[in-house]
Design brief:
With 194 residues, the chain is mainly alpha-helical. The chain folds into two domains: 66 residues; 127 residues. The protein has eight helices and no strands. Helix 1 runs antiparallel to helix 3 and helix 4 runs antiparallel to helix 6. It is globular, with a radius of gyration of 18 Å.
């Protein structure tokens, strides 16, 4: 559990750093923009790896002793599958200028909120509550922070319609990959046939 919590602390601490514009500008000015982004990426990746390893270790170590805080009914799994469809499309929209991206304003944060909520609905164990609850709290905080800073979003309202088609097609392909193979391959929990 310590590895998971340390990973979450590192990952969120580095991601909360940009919410303080003066601190971010000072670090970027001192080290240079490229070095700042490089250091940011390395620390975020280290935190993410610690989260993944810590969560897997906690699940394996606790096994059946992982406290079940609530027993999700079967229907919550179907809700989670449904919620993950827009989450994947919004995740893709974060990287492709499109009208979808402009409408969502901060599609990555919206995708994280939907992803975390979907997983909280479908999982009632303590490890999942810590992991997905932390991500949901972070995404909510960061969105509020962006509003307070007057950040209006990523734009893309003038992007060609083909970009929206591309976002949806890639999002659907990513959803299908995760549903049929990726979740089992990357997370170790197959979704279809499970």
């Amino acid at each position: 559990m310590i590895l998971l919590i340390a990973g979450l602390a590192i990952f969120f601490a580095i991601h909360l750093l940009p919410t303080n514009r003066m601190l971010r500008a000072g670090l970027a000015g001192r080290f240079g923009e490229a070095a700042y982004k490089g250091i940011f990426s390395v620390i975020a990746l280290a935190g993410f790896v610690m989260i993944v390893l810590g969560f897997a270790k906690m699940q394996a170590m606790l096994g059946s002793k992982n406290p079940i805080l609530w027993d999700p009914p079967t229907w919550t799994r179907h809700v989670a599958f449904t919620l993950m469809l827009p989450a994947m499309i919004l995740l893709v929209a974060a990287f492709i200028p499109s009208r979808i991206r402009a409408a969502a304003k901060h599609p990555m944060l919206v995708a994280i909120k939907i992803w975390a909520l979907a997983h909280l609905l479908a999982n009632g164990d303590a490890a999942s509550m810590i992991l997905f609850g932390s991500f949901l709290a972070y995404a909510v905080y960061d969105r509020i922070s962006l509003k307070r800073r007057g950040d209006t979003g990523w734009g893309g309202a003038d992007a060609p319609i083909i970009n929206d088609v591309l976002v949806v097609v890639i999002g659907l392909a990513l959803y299908a990959f995760m549903l049929f193979w990726g979740h089992g391959l990357l997370i170790g929990v197959p979704l279809v046939g499970a």
